[in-house]
Write a structure and sequence with these properties.
Two copies of one chain form a homodimer.
Chain A lengths: L1 H10 L4 E2 L1 H8 L3 H9 L5 E2 L3 E3 H11 L6 E6 L3 H7 L2 H5 L2 E7 L9 E2 L2 E4 L4 H7 L4 E4 L3 H13 L4 E4 L11 E3 L2 H13 L2
Helix pairs in contact in A: 1-4, 2-3
Chain A binds a DNA duplex (22 and 22 nucleotides) through α3 and β2.
Chain lengths: 191, 191
DNA sequence: CGTTGTGAATGTATTCACAGCG
DNA sequence: CGCTGTGAATACATTCACAACG
């Protein structure tokens, strides 16, 4: 989150930036910002602030974004295909190298420059393409199964769009569209 | 989250369910489940557990999901269109009543049964269609602007897919795809 | 029994407030 | 001066552990 703001600042020529400026952008306290940055060690200068570009690069390193991650998209339905051409992935150190889907119609096709393979080839292709992370956008019923196969094939992390808690022993990040909407509805009605 | 599990239990004929069963599904503690449910008042029976269906209905009411919310999708790009036909929205008390996009090619078209209108008509249509919530899937540069117009037109909550913190005074829920991926990359490399 | 609901204990996150520094 | 980095204080979340209950 801070990374975005720092990059924006750098682009606009603001070479230094203070914790309170960053805080204002996200409506949080300046103390929060400084605490969050504390784990990077001494990075700011009293009376001046932080060097936008340098701080961004430190954060990138801390988050392991100073390299390119090879990504597979599993499930080329609406959400899966929407993500294939997502420019922000490419811009931020992620490269979609392959997609998987069992739909006959997609066999052998290419979407947004990404080849779509059948799930039968999953293990093989994950190896040959050295896939490290997978975006799981398959129906809930098969999500757990596919997740296990992904991990067995060597995938080290999963971004899960299926509304099912996965039991695998690699890190999983969840994006649950309907839960987000439900949460919104709740907040709206308790204003 | 619990709602899903409770509905699944009900469908499978498990009329009662204990906190530890629910907890296991999400790899959390049973105490956590009971605390979370505490705000609903006395709902379980010692020695037995909770009535799956009845608890689900209480949660629905607490989250204001015991009604239908009228929804607009703003920005009919890849993500926007992917969401238009999303079956889970329809199933869970949300109804997409209209979409907006300025792309000439989409003028007057219908995607997945949803009419796409130009943004010029935003205020008018939001009123006439009684839209309460909006999904914001427009480019980051215009997100803040569009958000303000939405709120002025009467929208009471926004689900924001743009990677920009919105300043509006209605509840905002954020789905940030690249941040989720970045978070995943971080967790993977710190295993 | 088995399971809830909840005080008390613990753990974690956020904010306060200020010495110290350029 | 303005701003950082951080102890101390506060607020919040989670877990423990057990009386109460059918």
């Amino acid at each position: 989150m801070y990374l975005r703001e720092l990059d924006a600042a750098t682009r606009e020529g603001r070479t230094t930036i203070s914790s309170s400026t960053v805080a204002r952008a996200f409506s949080i306290t300046d103390a929060q910002v400084r605490r969050d940055l504390a784990c990077l060690g001494q990075t700011g200068r009293p009376g001046v602030g932080y060097q936008s570009a340098e701080l961004a690069s430190r954060i990138r390193k801390a988050l392991s974004l100073d390299r390119t991650w090879r990504l597979a998209i599993v499930g080329a339905g609406k959400i899966g295909t929407a993500l294939m051409g997502y420019p922000r992935f490419a811009g931020g150190g992620f490269r979609v190298v392959v997609a998987f889907d069992d739909n006959e119609k997609l066999r052998g096709t290419t979407v947004a420059g990404v080849a779509v393979k059948p799930l039968t080839d999953l293990a093989e292709v994950i190896h040959s393409e050295q896939v490290e992370l997978a975006v799981l956008a398959v129906p809930a019923e098969v999500a757990q199964d596919v997740a296990v196969r992904l991990v067995e094939a060597g995938v080290r992390g999963i971004l899960n769009f299926a509304p099912t808690p996965l039991k695998v022993d690699v890190p999983v990040e969840v994006i649950d569209l309907s839960r987000s909407l439900e949460q919104l509805a709740f907040h709206v009605s308790s204003v």
